[in-house]
Design brief:
Strand content: 15-25%
Helix content: 25-40%
Shape: flat
Strand order of the largest sheet: 1-8-7-6-2-5-3
Structural class: alpha/beta
Length: 407
């Protein structure tokens, strides 16, 4: 009977774990929301250009932000039970798990292995009134402005020994606090920009200023209705305006629900349905259930850990992909934005690769898995040369042909 009971528990845990990652679709709003983590490769992209992008960990105090950061990066940052234990942001580089990279290292046996990394920043707890300077609000909000995507840690556990900043355990109130403070900060910045743009437009009525004015007015309407800028439909010329300002509510977000170990293993918690419903009503997004308590107690057991999934989802939501270069000296993974063409992709290796670009030799990862070597791939005719219009795909293995004398 005891053996059966143990087997049943293990089966239940496995079933639950497979269901931990859920993408919550938004309810219909006046403006169509875009579920996060599902960005189209060629769609309108909000945010900074480039490939050196960062995820920031935010939340109200004492929800497990710094503990999550510690688990992800193994950096020693403060994680005491005190609301403002993280005054300055802490930064870490976290390896992005990739079985393809491991396989390529196994077959090439290089002297050096350089995997993909994701930059993560731990940002101190945000409290109600932060947009007006409450707590250390203005400083914290400026730190959020420096990141490109947000891990929003939500407290889903009840523990009287770990205080809540407002004195009552209420996950929905915590979610509203973060939403309202980011919106309030954006509104303050937007209203000043809008005032300046109106003055300029009244003096010089041109199409560019009219477009800027329309985008800012549309954004103001969204924010006043507590709708995030990222949740609206935008065309490219509107996105170009928004990307000059980089509003906080234009950043993609992943919700990390921190449960007690007991609730995590059961797959049930008091606040889960309420949190999922809140996310549906506030633009949709990826929701990951995890447990700091469980991760700390099972630090050596990666089978059921949600940490690798967090890192991969953070990387994906920033619209990042990577290609590989391989050889006996080094196997390396290079990060680019999805949709990047070959000449620009080459600049992550060296800036000369774009102006001196001749062609790129492309090996598909699945081909090297199937055939085992570059020579076998060439014999099968799967070794391809591509030109300047080739859009690099996630997992490509590339060799760039460069004319170094080209000006």
């Amino acid at each position: 009977g005891l053996k059966f009971f143990k087997k049943q528990i293990q089966k239940d845990i496995a079933t639950f774990f497979r269901a931990q990652l859920s993408t919550v679709k938004p309810k219909k709003q006046t403006t169509q929301a875009q579920p996060q983590g599902k960005q189209e490769a060629k769609g309108v992209r909000l945010g900074r250009p480039g490939n050196t992008l960062k995820m920031g960990i935010v939340g109200v105090p004492n929800v497990g932000k710094s503990s999550t950061f510690n688990l992800l990066s193994n950096l020693s940052v403060p994680a005491e039970n005190f609301p403002f234990c993280t005054i300055d942001p802490n930064h870490g580089l976290v390896e992005v798990p990739d079985e393809r990279f491991k396989f390529l290292c196994e077959i090439c046996k290089p002297k050096l292995q350089t995997p993909t990394t994701l930059q993560i920043t731990d940002i101190a707890g945000l409290v109600r009134g932060a947009s007006e300077g409450e707590g250390l609000g203005n400083e914290f909000l400026s730190h959020i402005n420096e990141v490109d995507g947000i891990f929003h840690v939500v407290r889903g556990f009840e523990n009287e020994k770990i205080m809540t900043f407002e004195g009552v355990m209420d996950s929905i109130s915590d979610l509203n606090t973060i939403r309202d403070e980011l919106i309030a900060k954006d509104l303050k910045i937007l209203e000043k920009r809008l005032e300046d743009t109106k003055k300029l437009y009244n003096r010089n009525k041109n199409d560019e200023l009219k477009n800027t004015l329309d985008v800012l007015e549309k954004s103001q309407g969204l924010l006043k209705n507590k709708v995030w800028i990222r949740c609206a439909d935008w065309i490219q010329k509107e996105a170009d305006v928004l990307n000059k300002y980089l509003f906080l509510t234009s950043k993609p977000m992943i919700y990390l629900v921190n449960l007690s170990q007991e609730d995590y293993l059961k797959g049930q918690a008091k606040w889960l349905d309420k949190i999922n419903n809140w996310v549906k009503e506030n633009g949709g997004g990826t929701v990951l259930n995890y447990s700091v308590e469980y991760e700390q107690s099972k630090a050596d057991n990666k089978d059921k850990s949600m940490l690798p999934t967090m890192v991969k989802e953070g990387y994906k939501i920033l619209d990042l992909v990577h290609f590989f270069t391989i050889g006996s000296d080094e196997v390396r993974s290079w990060t680019i934005r999805r949709g990047t063409k070959a000449p620009l992709a080459g600049t992550v290796i060296h800036s000369d690769f774009e102006k001196g670009f001749v062609h790129v030799e492309v090996i598909k990862y699945q081909d090297i898995v199937e055939l085992g070597s570059e020579s076998a791939i060439k014999k099968k005719g799967r070794f391809k040369k591509e030109g300047k219009d080739y859009e690099v795909q996630d997992g490509d293995i590339l060799h760039f042909k460069i004319n170094r004398g080209k000006k």
